[in-house]
Amino acid sequence: QVQLVESGGGLVQAGGSLRLSCAASGSIFRINSMGWYRQAPGKQRELVARITSGGSTNYADSVKGRFTISRDNAKNTVYLQMNSLKPEDTAVYYCNADRVVVIRDGVYDYWGQGTQVTVSS
Fold first, then answer.
1. Burial environment of residue 70 by CB neighbours within 10 A (0 to 12, 13 to 18, 19 or more)
2. CA–CA distance, 39 with 46 (Å, rounded to integer)
3. Cβ distance 68 to 4 under 8 Å?
4. pLDDT per position as a tens digit, 36-63
């Protein structure tokens, strides 16, 4: 089994910063890409940022220039540095690991349990 454990969420004032972390553990051979999604109340889950094992990244237009995704392949960990936070960034943030090759098993996608980010105005 593979688990994703997120940390780093919380309450911050507008203009502040937070750093989210997500560590994948278990019988992992390789992870293709890792990313962060978010879901605000009454809205659909949306992509925030993704990063491949080779370091290629893509971001939602709403966070470009403010958020930075990074990854430590050796630790199977992905980070999201969030700067200049706005109230509209308030949401539950979910970590995703895409096409995880699990030893002696198969290829699966995994999600973390979510971490709340609240930005006050």
1. middle
2. 6
3. no
4. 999 999 999 999 999 999 999 999 999 9
